[in-house]
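Q: Can I see a sequence and its folded structure?
A: Here is a first one.
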Amino acid sequence: MKNLSQLLTVVKPLQVAGDTDVPITDLINDSRLASPGAMFVAVKGVAVDSHRFIADVVKAGARAIVCEDMPAQQDDNVTYIQVENSVIALAHLADEWFDHPSRRLRLVGVTGTNGKTTTATLLYEMARMLGHKAGLLSTVKNIIDTVEQPAAQTTPDHLTLNRLLHEMVEAGCEYAFMEVSSHACVQRRIEGIHFTGGIFTNLTRDHMDFHKTVDNYIAAKKMFFDALPKGAFALVNADDKVGDVMLQNTAAGKYHYSLRTMADYKGRIVESRLDGTTLELNGHQVEVMFTGRFNAYNLLSVYGASLLLGFDPQQVLVKMSLLEPVAGRFQTLRSPRGYTAIIDYAHTPDALVNVLDTIREVVGTSGHVITVCGCGGDRDTGKRPIMAREAAVRSDRVVLTSDNPRSEDPDEILRQMEVGLPDEMRPHTLTITDRRQAIRTACQLAGRGDVVLVAGKGHEDYQEIKGVKHHFDDREQVLEVFGTESPD
């Protein structure tokens, strides 16, 4: 419980109608959670303007209303606070309500198109291995020290984010690592959050349904670095052409990591295998349980951020060899018949290229590459033919299938993908809408030494069709196929 007058010190009211010396029992932005004594923040969302629920919230006993538009009818027992931007007000109110949790943690944010989940998760694991309590906010799951919670969004809303950070503080966490999505930047979900550091992985085409242009997408990512405070660190991928753009206006200390050029944290792939890599980090060789250039970049950023956080360099190198791949990120499974299946979350053209190039680099011409992929519904339609083309030119066989069609017709999504297929690959491409059957077919096509890549869903354990989530796990499907096979 906090006093309304205390909460109002973090917002800039345009006007206040009512008593400010009153206790507030809860802070909410969901009218369905209204209770006696609560403060309700009305936000003009993309789909719903919650100003329309103010009367309902008042009827439920709310004591204070924060809004952009003052209601025509006001209750004498309620205090109404008009602000210029409810979203920004909510961000600072949430920070105040939970006693500024981000300032009591060493919080590192990770942004970029690909690699966010892996990088944030491995940093969490690194901190834990080095004896520190830590928290994680990721696409896959949230973790408070060792207690896991399901994740609904890559970057949670203001109240959820501050509540989770507060729980980390209460659990004794010293460090926290979180993914920062471009949507969260534009929607100001990280407003009021204090970061110790920020990491930029890479930027390729994604979320054009939301951002409309690549320039807007870049600008969204840059907002995160522009807001980093002096004393924080900004660590960017020097091999990505957008890396230095992220640093243009930041007050944070500027650092680079690279596999190709001189940098603060320089890496080199010495040897790559399907089950791991020999990696050189600032002149020190280490064996890691990860494969691929994209994973080398992820590990390099983890190495750099660990040193910037002050972890012992020698201990960091030792722990690097113990880090394990994140579920659904280049997850390798060996068939009884001698082929390898790889489960990966690659759902953008660039991510798919990275994974397929890695597989081809290791397999060479000694084995065939068979790719299963699709595209999600209600998302960027422009990438659909690109995904099919990239899969086709880098694979020996392709099976196009349904991903999460959501509200769209899965067959229409597949027709849009087929447009991108090169003519010479059409005889080597199958279109099977049923994802279970597509995976089974791809495995049946594989022989000893071949690789089956099942791309797009990774860690997800559901398939969303017509607004309903059905249980579906790519890994489970592959293992089910394995269970019916006999060794060669």
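Q: Show me another, different protein.
A: A second, unrelated one:
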Amino acid sequence: MRLDKLINGVCYTSVVGELAIVEVEVIAFDSRKVQVNSMFVAVVGVNTDGHEYISGSISRGATVIVCQTLPKDIVAGVTYICVEDSNVALGVISNNFYDHPSRNLKLVGITGTNGKTTTATLLYDLFKMLGYKVGLISTVIYRIGDEELESTHTTPDALSLNKLMSDMVDVGCEYCFMEVSSHSIVQGRISGLDFVGGVFSNITHDHLDYHKTFAEYIKAKKLFFDNLPKGSFALVNADDRNGSVMVQNCVSDIYKYSLQNVVDFRCKISEMLFDGMLLSIDSVELWVSFLGRFNAYNLLSVYGTAILLGADKDEVLCAMSRLRSVTGRFEYVRSERGMTAIVDYAHTPDALENVISTINEIRTPDQKLFVVVGCGGDRDAAKRPKMANIAASNSDLSILTSDNPRHENPDDILAQMRAGLDPTSKYLMISDRREAIKSAVMMAGNSDIILIAGKGHETYQDVKGVKHHFDDKEEVLKAFEILNQ
């Protein structure tokens, strides 16, 4: 693509070299992927600064450099484009390079602390049931129609995002549902995308290692709605106190959903059992194979989104009754003796409290609850004592263990978790996650319940930068087998 067309819409401050006569064949923000006639975008990241790799990229064949600061040594024959924000520029450039694929899709972004994966995935499943070709970009997996690709990030980089959507357009997808993380918003990964709608689930304590303050975290989420175009829709959770904050000064058409208030889309939980619950959505009752208030909110947002996209109400409700839970989200298995184990991704204080309260609402007085929980390393440390306190205060026994320790010492993480417990708390500390799960199974009675929280769908454990195979569901099934011997 010609360079002058490629940078259309990019806010640049200066140019050194030619624009109109330059052709670009490859875009890269990783210098190792630079080829002849490439554009290298020097992205300023959390851990690395792409400006340090400009010289190496030129030696590999880059003929265009997009940067925030011009290098001291200007190489003849190379065009330098100086921009205010190289992350945002990469989003716009990627969008141009792939010929604006999001314009040929009905793209809906889902943001919030909890519920993004479930909502996006259920929307994909729902619209597929309704007969459409659909794309999905989520924490668990990427889907291009029926093709599945391994997920690398909740929201991938701008170049990968536009490539995914271009592939969706090529196979005839009409809709795309994607999770929008707070990181991706402030890092400009979604710059240049054309959204027809945005959904806000909730906002609670998370990612403060990155955003530093809760106010900055809220600001990041709000930025997504600030940038939605006129004519799009913004669907927000009216029961979250920050729902109204998200749509302040928003030019979209604003809609709300609630379990408590009279708003555009309403839901009531009529009955809840271990195999599902009876909901009343806009005065129509339906049985769904999901549990908990948090899932009622997720399903209501799915319903509201589908209606705002023009789907038929009766068809939507019929399809919703056939939806099934997402992998690693309140996924339960039972032993031959009647013990129940629930695997859930809950990795924030609010998510953990929601899952435990749902279990406590359903379990009988004679059923004990064991909670196996850990906290990830190299992440928000402030939530560690809170997570431990929630687990211990709302269960018969909590077992503190490793999650993804990454580059931290697991015992140090456990010590920080233990700081949130009082002397009367009933808990164990077992840093080996496999042993922690096995111990919970061996201590639980035949009718008891075990919650294994924090990793959900993940099939690995990250230890010192190496991902070792580990699957909570596999481990609990192995422990069940030992118990049955």
